[in-house]
Write a structure and sequence with these properties.
There is one protein chain. By secondary structure, the chain is of the alpha+beta class. The chain has one domain (3-127): Lambda Exonuclease, Chain A, CATH 3.90.320.10. It has three helices and five strands, in the order ααβββαββ. Strands 1-2-3-4-5 form a five-stranded mixed beta sheet, with helices on both faces. α1 (3-29) packs across α2. The longest helix has 27 residues, at 3-29. The radius of gyration is 15 Å and the shape is globular.
Length: 128
Protein backbone atom coordinates (compact mmCIF):
# COMPACT_ATOMS: atom_id res chain seq x y z
CA UNK A 1 0.00 0.00 0.00
CA UNK A 2 1.47 3.37 -0.95
CA UNK A 3 1.42 6.49 1.23
CA UNK A 4 -1.51 8.12 -0.60
CA UNK A 5 -3.70 5.01 -0.20
CA UNK A 6 -2.80 4.80 3.48
CA UNK A 7 -3.59 8.49 4.01
CA UNK A 8 -6.88 8.09 2.14
CA UNK A 9 -7.88 5.17 4.38
CA UNK A 10 -7.04 7.19 7.49
CA UNK A 11 -9.09 10.14 6.20
CA UNK A 12 -12.02 7.84 5.35
CA UNK A 13 -12.06 6.33 8.84
CA UNK A 14 -11.75 9.75 10.43
CA UNK A 15 -14.57 11.14 8.25
CA UNK A 16 -16.82 8.25 9.31
CA UNK A 17 -16.17 9.07 12.97
CA UNK A 18 -16.87 12.77 12.47
CA UNK A 19 -20.06 12.05 10.52
CA UNK A 20 -21.22 9.65 13.25
CA UNK A 21 -20.56 12.30 15.88
CA UNK A 22 -22.53 14.88 13.86
CA UNK A 23 -25.51 12.51 13.67
CA UNK A 24 -25.32 12.03 17.44
CA UNK A 25 -25.35 15.81 17.98
CA UNK A 26 -28.24 16.21 15.54
CA UNK A 27 -30.23 13.41 17.15
CA UNK A 28 -29.64 14.81 20.64
CA UNK A 29 -30.20 18.53 20.00
CA UNK A 30 -32.49 18.54 16.98
CA UNK A 31 -32.72 21.52 14.64
CA UNK A 32 -33.11 25.20 15.41
CA UNK A 33 -30.05 26.26 17.38
CA UNK A 34 -27.33 28.66 16.25
CA UNK A 35 -24.20 27.29 14.56
CA UNK A 36 -22.09 28.02 17.65
CA UNK A 37 -24.22 25.64 19.74
CA UNK A 38 -23.62 22.82 17.25
CA UNK A 39 -19.93 23.70 17.06
CA UNK A 40 -19.56 23.36 20.82
CA UNK A 41 -21.68 20.20 20.97
CA UNK A 42 -19.76 18.56 18.12
CA UNK A 43 -16.46 19.48 19.77
CA UNK A 44 -17.70 17.86 22.97
CA UNK A 45 -18.88 14.72 21.15
CA UNK A 46 -15.64 14.35 19.17
CA UNK A 47 -13.60 14.78 22.36
CA UNK A 48 -15.74 12.14 24.09
CA UNK A 49 -14.90 9.84 21.17
CA UNK A 50 -11.19 10.43 21.73
CA UNK A 51 -10.57 12.76 18.79
CA UNK A 52 -8.43 15.86 19.17
CA UNK A 53 -10.54 18.79 18.03
CA UNK A 54 -9.68 22.48 17.72
CA UNK A 55 -12.27 25.24 17.34
CA UNK A 56 -11.98 28.46 15.31
CA UNK A 57 -8.67 27.60 13.67
CA UNK A 58 -6.99 30.55 11.91
CA UNK A 59 -5.24 30.11 8.56
CA UNK A 60 -3.39 32.89 6.73
CA UNK A 61 -4.22 33.60 3.10
CA UNK A 62 -1.08 34.36 1.13
CA UNK A 63 -0.64 36.14 -2.16
CA UNK A 64 2.80 35.65 -3.68
CA UNK A 65 4.09 34.83 -0.23
CA UNK A 66 2.53 37.87 1.44
CA UNK A 67 -0.30 37.61 3.97
CA UNK A 68 -3.43 39.27 2.57
CA UNK A 69 -6.14 37.83 4.76
CA UNK A 70 -7.19 35.09 7.09
CA UNK A 71 -9.70 32.26 7.09
CA UNK A 72 -11.15 30.84 10.29
CA UNK A 73 -12.34 27.26 10.09
CA UNK A 74 -15.00 26.12 12.55
CA UNK A 75 -13.27 22.87 13.57
CA UNK A 76 -10.19 20.86 12.71
CA UNK A 77 -10.25 17.22 13.78
CA UNK A 78 -7.05 15.26 14.40
CA UNK A 79 -5.14 17.97 12.49
CA UNK A 80 -6.45 16.30 9.31
CA UNK A 81 -10.11 17.14 8.65
CA UNK A 82 -11.63 20.57 8.38
CA UNK A 83 -15.24 20.76 9.58
CA UNK A 84 -17.53 23.63 8.63
CA UNK A 85 -20.93 23.97 10.29
CA UNK A 86 -24.00 25.63 8.83
CA UNK A 87 -27.60 26.28 9.79
CA UNK A 88 -29.07 27.12 6.39
CA UNK A 89 -32.11 26.18 4.34
CA UNK A 90 -29.88 24.39 1.84
CA UNK A 91 -26.24 24.11 0.84
CA UNK A 92 -25.14 26.69 -1.70
CA UNK A 93 -22.19 26.89 -4.05
CA UNK A 94 -20.52 29.46 -1.84
CA UNK A 95 -20.41 26.95 1.03
CA UNK A 96 -18.42 24.56 -1.15
CA UNK A 97 -16.21 27.39 -2.39
CA UNK A 98 -15.59 28.50 1.17
CA UNK A 99 -14.41 25.02 2.14
CA UNK A 100 -12.19 24.72 -0.91
CA UNK A 101 -10.55 28.02 0.04
CA UNK A 102 -10.13 26.82 3.62
CA UNK A 103 -8.45 23.67 2.32
CA UNK A 104 -6.13 25.71 0.11
CA UNK A 105 -5.19 28.02 2.98
CA UNK A 106 -4.74 25.20 5.51
CA UNK A 107 -3.00 22.63 3.34
CA UNK A 108 -5.54 20.01 4.48
CA UNK A 109 -7.08 17.61 1.95
CA UNK A 110 -10.54 16.87 3.37
CA UNK A 111 -13.41 19.06 4.52
CA UNK A 112 -16.83 18.08 5.79
CA UNK A 113 -19.72 20.56 5.77
CA UNK A 114 -22.67 19.88 8.05
CA UNK A 115 -26.07 21.57 7.93
CA UNK A 116 -28.00 21.34 11.18
CA UNK A 117 -31.04 23.33 9.98
CA UNK A 118 -33.12 20.24 9.10
CA UNK A 119 -34.47 17.55 11.45
CA UNK A 120 -31.81 15.17 10.05
CA UNK A 121 -28.30 16.59 9.64
CA UNK A 122 -27.12 17.00 6.06
CA UNK A 123 -23.48 16.73 5.11
CA UNK A 124 -21.14 17.08 2.18
CA UNK A 125 -17.59 15.84 1.68
CA UNK A 126 -15.04 17.99 -0.16
CA UNK A 127 -11.62 16.67 -1.20
CA UNK A 128 -8.84 18.95 -2.34
Amino acid sequence: MNTNEHESEILDRLAEKVIGAAYEVSNSLGAGFLEKVYERALTCELTLRGLKTRQQVHYPVLYKGQPVGEYVGDLVVADMVLVELKCVERFMGEHTAQCINYLKASGLRLALIFNFQKPKVEWKRIIW
